[in-house]
Amino acid sequence: MDSSAPNDIDLLLQKAKSSGNTEDLSALWKAVLSLPQWHFITRQTANIEDRKPFVGVLDGKPWAFVFTDRQRAQEYARTIPGGEFVDASGNVLVISTETPRAVDYLLALAAQGVHGVRFNELNGWFSPLANLPAIIRHVHKG
Question: Which domains does the chain have, with CATH numbers?
Fold first, then answer.
């Protein structure tokens, strides 16, 4: 099975949500951690060097928004009216980062007080960033 295919992630997510089974959740995380890249949306700024991955606030807590493919990132960015993610030409800037670097970035955000990570917002899942090291250890030992 090609774990980088968006439909595979959807199937793994659906299975994990419906079963609540630890093995199904582990399979989802394993697939996501094995992706070559994770994708972040960023707000449009005059200076491209000022752009950084979007961190939004939900229920009073900061969350990093991560996507398993560029299309999902673009689709989500377009759902936020006035979010400044879409430029005048209708383009969304997506920052694609190798997965290990993305994980390191998220752990650095945790140290700065970011509460959690939300994958594929609109039809996805989330986790507190404090749980990420344990999730990675669990997935890699299995």
Answer: 36-141 (3.40.1350.90)
